[in-house]
Amino acid sequence: MKIKSAFKLLGILKILVFTACVQNSDEKDFVQAVPQNSNFLTFDSVHVVNEFPKIHAIEKGVGLRKEFIGMKDFEIIDSLMVVSTSFQKFWSIYQLPSLDSLGSFLSLGEGPKEFSYPSIASDKVLFRSEGDDITALIYQFSKGNLLKFNLNQSIKLGQDSLELADNDLPLFLFDLLILESDHYYIRQPENQETKQNRYLLSQGQLSSNKLLDQLNRAEVSNGMLNLSLMASMTRLSPERDKILEMYFRLNYFNLYALDGSLKKTIAIEPTLDDLSLLEKVPQPERNYRFSDVRAYDDFFALLHLNELEQDFATDRKSFPEILIFDWEGNPISKLVFEDFFTSFDFDLVRQKVYTFDSQTDQFKVHDLPFDFN
Fold this sequence. Notes:
The chain is mainly β. Helix content is 12%, strand content 43%.
């Protein structure tokens, strides 16, 4: 009865708050006002996307013949695939499309160039090309430093090619983006973990601006129970001029430029998730909205799950979708799948999408019925 009552209250309050905002909800794309309070992780207006210009049905994937024991996540960079694992050497590198092994690198330990915890290749890592080499700048949240890993040199030498890039960063950051040398965007827990505030960090000094302050007003009442409602994955555009925040538990995301030239909250439903109302919903009945986000030169893509947490852990009911937008926040296309998975990445050269499901450890590849180029 308590669960039913909570949902009834949630539905009534949502209707009261947003009735005036959804009069044009049959339009393909419209803007609505949002209450300016701590219940919403939004800017002052929201772009609601009801339709995508193109929808592609993706056929079932083919399981990869190679076995990836201990796999946690993966990232594709040019012709290389980095697979994050739980082993002592926790990054394994493979050649695409053959998936020939090129070695395992990065070690757990307490040394200056070792890691206290395995780093996930798709999170708090900046991959970039430097001449003929691919490098990765990796943030260690338990040590407060930034290590530079040269993938090509490591493969050539058969051992880690690592150097310390920064040794004076805050510990335990939820997010870190590298804007320029010694200039960072960070997000950290505050106020007994009821807030997750964003700052700019330059030469050891923290600062904010009006744009970040708008997002920083969001708050939950109990950090221990409800911190996950604001949990996110944050990405930087390839030009490092735009920031994308995807929230695991909310049906909208934010895209903005720090200079204020772009400021968009983009929703995929006309009724926005309200933090104060979600707090009243029992944990198993909360929605698991998004699971992964990837950034590319001309677009970004979000993995939309929209499963109740209790179903996600037992019997999933909704096949995932990948939602693709350009860097101005305009919808491009939606990919609809027939397989369950929790993370993905595109091989744009060969027009493939790889998917990994953390629930079943299934790693598959799918053909794309269109050309990104």
